[in-house]
Design brief:
6% of the residues lie in helices and 49% in strands. 20% of the residues are buried. The protein is globular, with a radius of gyration of 15 Å. It has 123 residues and is mainly beta.
Length: 123
């Protein structure tokens, strides 16, 4: 997965997320993996985390896999996924193409998964 950070449709930064199992976003620069300077964001605002999850398919068989999830850390001004507020203390799956926003910040954090061909080359 790659994280693209935009402000006013300008790309500010790109971050490969596969290098760690989780990423902390927040204003507290000493502990945040990705500092957010906007005053509406909490000191420890939200986490992006890879989790192994087992789901049942349509035939009732269990299949496991690693997915990317966002967790709002009960921030004062919320975490937004595709324009909808994420409930605090609940893991919500993030898919390729999803857009995250923190608090009232105008920055958009876009999650993209590289094509399978690129994933094979990276291994």
């Amino acid at each position: 997965y790659l994280l693209y950070i935009f402000k006013s449709s300008s790309l500010i930064s790109t971050l490969p997320l596969h290098t760690r199992s989780c990423w902390l976003f927040g204003r507290e620069a000493l502990v945040a993996d990705i500092p957010i300077e906007h005053p509406s964001c909490s000191k420890q605002h939200a986490v992006l985390q890879f989790r192994y999850v087992v789901k049942k398919d349509e035939w009732g068989e269990k299949k496991g896999g690693v997915g990317l999830y966002v967790l709002d850390l009960e921030s004062a001004n919320g975490t937004w996924l595709n324009g909808e507020r994420v409930e605090g203390r609940r893991y919500v799956e993030v898919r390729s193409g999803d857009v995250l926003k923190w608090g009232q910040s105008e920055r958009e954090y876009v999650i993209l998964r590289p094509p399978k061909e690129m994933e094979e080359v990276a291994k």
